[in-house]
Structure formats: C-alpha cells, structure tokens
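Lecture notes, part 5. Sequence design as translation. It can be helpful to think of inverse folding as translation between two languages: the language of shapes and the language of residues. The source text, in structure tokens, appears below.
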C-alpha cells in the first residue's frame, strides 16, 4: 500500500510563525552592586508547524546577562529565558534585550533596574555622572575630614598604615627597612612621597597632610621622582626596582601604578587640579587605574586612613566611578552621545511565504533621543520585501521597531538590503543585507488549476496529483534555497526521479508565461 505525504501551499491557507514573549518588560527593582537578581519569562511558539531556535539574545549593557536551558523552540511549545541583573554602579538602568530567532525575526524585552551601593557613604553619588558626580564626591570627601597635620600623618603611616610586621616598604623600589617613627625613617633613608608634588600647591594644608596621596619611599627614589609627571618611560636615565625616570617623566613600578593613579585622581577631585598638573597624564593614569586594580593591601590601607582622617578614596572603594567621569581635572561637561546599534548586521529569513511579516529593531545606545527616524527604505525596486511600518522615535535606552513583509512575485531565493539612514541623528547609516527563500507566489492565482505533489517512496520519485500540462517548466528547490534538479534529478511532467538527496522538505515550482504554482513535498 502506498502512503502519500502531500503538502500543498495555497495563499488562502497560509500559517505563519507566531512567536511572542510572555513579558515585554522586566523590572528588577533595587539590587546592590556586586549582587545579582534573576527574572524569567517564556518565549512562546504558537505555530503548528514551525521549528525554531533562539540564535542570540543581544543585550546592550554588560551588567545584564542571559541564560537558556535550551534554544530549541518546537511548534506549540515554549522555553524559559532567564535574565540576570548584576549592577556595578549605583545608577538607574534602562536597556533592551533583543531575542533573535532562526527565521530572522526579533522579539524585544525592556530591562529596567536600579543599582545601589550597600555602603551608605556614597549615597550622595546615586545616579550622578560627570561634573555632578565629581561635585558630589568633592563634598563627601571634605565632610567630617580630620587633618592630622604633617607630623601626625607620618607618625600614623610609619607606625600603622604602611607598617607590616615592623617593616616599611618603599613603594617605588621595594626596599624594606624596620622602623616605626619619623626618626627611624630618617635613619633608614626613608621619607614621605607626596604623589601630587608639594611645590604645586605650596605645601598648603590639609593637602600636605592628606595620607591618601602620601607614601613611604626610599629617599633617593623620592628625589629622583621630584616633581615629574607620571608616564611611560621608553628610555630611562635612572631605574631601580622597576621604577624609572626619563624624558621628563617618572614611571612607578607595576605594583604601585594603580595606587599612584588613584591617589592622583583622588587629589584632583578632593582639592583641585593645581597648575593643570593632571591633564597631560590623565589618560595614562586612567589606564593604570583600570589595569592595576586595588590590591588587598591598598583596600586595607584605605580603611586605615578612614579610621584616622574620616574620609575615603572613592576610586579604591568603587573603581567603576571612573567610567562615569570623562575628565578628572578639567570641567567635565556631560557629553552629547548620539549612537545606535542593531542586533543583526545581516539577516537570513530562511523560508517565507507571501504576506509574512518580520520585525527588526534599532536600539538607541546614546544619551540623546533619536527623534526623527524617517529615512528607512529597501534598496531593491522589485518590491519583493515591503516596509509596513517603522517607529519614528527611539528614546534613550529604548528601541525603534521596523516591520516589513514579503510581497514577492518571484519564487526561490531573493535578496535585498534594508537601509536605515541615521546620518542626521547619530552620524551612521546601517545597510543590512537580507536573504530569504520565497515559497509562494501571487502571480495569477485566480482561475488556475491547483496541482499537488507527493513523494512515492517505492519509485523514489515526486509525482503529481493533477495533470500539470498547462505549465511548461519545472524547478525543484531544497529548504536551503538551492535549485537542485539540474544535474542529478530528471524532471518530467509525469514524475520527478529523485536520486541520492537527503530526507527533508522540497519545493516543486511549476511555471508558465502567465502563472506560477508551488507545492511543498516531504521526502522521507
């Protein structure tokens, strides 16, 4: 007995993939920096016949992440998408997660959360950046400050803050000596390095006595540093223990680079940028700050200084503050950032049917609203893809939605380019290559005799249910959009001999000058 598997596509019976998310917005609420919170939603496939995959989830803020138990989305099923929020900053977060499906479609989830610092010391910095953040830090670092005086500051350094097991270490050379007093420092050729040179602020108090920029050093290395700015030394006239002098710059050894950078940034914000001293070296210092994160010793030192001075170095406590500051020394005006991004730089929609829709998103990744998205179009003039709608605006942290649909009179593989011209908004134009395989045609379907096909497993051929005599050519395409019959499949209007091809879905296209009909057949 023959078993026939017949799959015939008619325009009036099209069924499209219907995929959605159970929640379009996730609100994480308050989460302490360094801690995390996970929320979940369902991705739902309501289609009866479309097997899909989640190929990517694009999130445009590194403090959010995602996980999937599986990326397979069978017909009439759902899967769980987990989204985690682990803030590093004490700010309000607003970004998007764009779920990309294997058919090129995109789903949008709005992500909202608030990062908090567990330590109340920095409450005044919440949601502040640039000059506002610098002002908040300056105010906090001065509040309740205790000036120990220069002698008192050195006494605490040598006896406690920088004394480990009775020994004090030169931060520049690594040389150690055993002492606990100022006189002991002198007898061991140690003195106190002012990271911000005293000559630039005329030994003014409390700057002179602020331990956050004071370090114990070998007298010779302290003299070698002098008042030189910090920087990379390529040709050294002096070096010891990893520190170097040359070309009018002083480069501390790697163990001290990060602490030096944080001391300089602290000083400029706590007091001022005397003589614009930090300006020429700021980029190097920021690089050192990022590359050489606070050590356990530096963190302990910060805590000990706080016990005596009653203020802290914010860049030791929260190194990420520098991400919210563009200029440590000069006035840090909030920059105007106009930028946008897309989830897919090229899109392969796979098999599509006449009238089927797809969604595409453009995310605003800047700090200014994109308020005039008007120049969106498709390059091709054959109108196989047509725009249905697009949002004219994308607010900060939000996305603009573009919807287009397939309206092709041509069967088989089609290509086009989606152009999103945002030159006037963000100085950028996106050109997105589109590829799809059209499985239906709208040409002269009225008054056409419908011709179906099935696969005959016994004869290993595709056969016709009705007489296709009114057509004059046959094509066979696989589900990858490849025309396959030319070399190894012999087509006739009786049957199509099938030799050596794998199981799967194939498309038989019958053509004449006036009409096109398509049948889908399962080869098993």
């Amino acid at each position: 007995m023959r078993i026939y598997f017949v799959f015939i596509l008619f325009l009036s019976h099209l069924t499209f993939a219907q995929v959605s998310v159970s929640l379009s917005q996730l609100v994480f609420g308050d989460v302490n920096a360094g801690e995390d919170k996970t929320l979940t939603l369902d991705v739902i496939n309501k289609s009866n016949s479309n097997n899909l995959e989640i190929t990517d989830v694009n999130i445009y803020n590194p403090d959010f992440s995602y996980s999937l138990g599986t990326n397979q989305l069978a017909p009439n099923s759902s899967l769980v998408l987990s989204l985690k929020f682990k803030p590093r900053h004490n700010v309000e977060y607003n970004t998007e997660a764009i779920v990309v499906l294997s058919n090129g479609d995109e789903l949008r989830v709005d992500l909202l959360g608030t990062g908090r610092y567990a330590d109340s010391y920095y409450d005044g910095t919440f949601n502040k950046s640039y000059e506002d953040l610098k002002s908040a830090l300056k105010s906090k670092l001065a509040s309740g400050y205790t000036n120990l005086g220069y002698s008192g500051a050195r006494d605490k350094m040598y006896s406690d803050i920088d004394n480990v097991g009775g020994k004090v270490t030169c931060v520049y050379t690594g040389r150690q000596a055993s002492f606990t007093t100022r006189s002991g420092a002198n007898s061991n050729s140690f003195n106190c390095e002012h990271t911000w040179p005293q000559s630039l602020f005329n030994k003014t108090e409390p700057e002179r006595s602020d331990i956050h920029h004071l370090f114990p050093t070998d007298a010779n290395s302290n003299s070698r540093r002098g008042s030189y700015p910090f920087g990379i030394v390529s040709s050294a006239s002096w070096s010891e223990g990893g520190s170097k002098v040359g070309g009018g710059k002083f480069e501390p050894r790697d163990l001290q680079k990060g602490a030096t950078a944080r001391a300089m940034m602290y000083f400029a914000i706590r007091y001022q940028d005397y003589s614009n001293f930090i300006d020429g070296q700021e980029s190097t210092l920021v690089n050192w700050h990022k590359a050489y994160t606070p050590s356990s010793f530096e963190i302990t030192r910060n805590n000990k200084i706080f016990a005596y001075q009653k203020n802290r170095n914010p860049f030791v406590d929260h190194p990420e503050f520098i991400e919210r500051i563009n200029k440590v020394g000069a006035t840090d005006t909030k920059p105007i950032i106009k930028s946008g991004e897309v989830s897919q730089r090229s899109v392969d929609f796979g098999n599509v049917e006449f009238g089927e829709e797809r969604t595409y998103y453009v995310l605003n990744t800047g700090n200014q609203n994109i308020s005039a998205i008007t120049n969106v179009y498709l390059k091709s003039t054959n109108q196989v893809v047509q725009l249905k709608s697009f949002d004219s605006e994308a607010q900060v942290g939000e996305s603009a939605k573009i919807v287009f649909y397939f309206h092709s009179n041509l069967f088989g593989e089609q290509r086009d380019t989606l152009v999103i011209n945002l030159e006037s908004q963000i100085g950028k134009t996106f050109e997105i290559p589109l590829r799809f395989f059209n499985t239906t045609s709208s040409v002269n379907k009225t008054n056409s005799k419908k011709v179906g096909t099935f696969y005959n497993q016994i004869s290993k051929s595709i056969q016709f249910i009705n007489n296709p005599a009114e057509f004059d050519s046959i094509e066979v395409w696989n589900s990858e959009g490849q025309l396959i019959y030319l070399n190894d499949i012999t087509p006739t209007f009786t049957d199509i001999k099938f030799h050596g091809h794998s199981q799967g879905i194939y498309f038989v296209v019958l053509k004449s000058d006036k009409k096109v009909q398509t049948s889908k057949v399962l080869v098993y």
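The translated text above is only one of many valid answers, since several sequences can fold into similar shapes. The domain at 336-442 is CATH 2.60.40.10 (Immunoglobulin-like).
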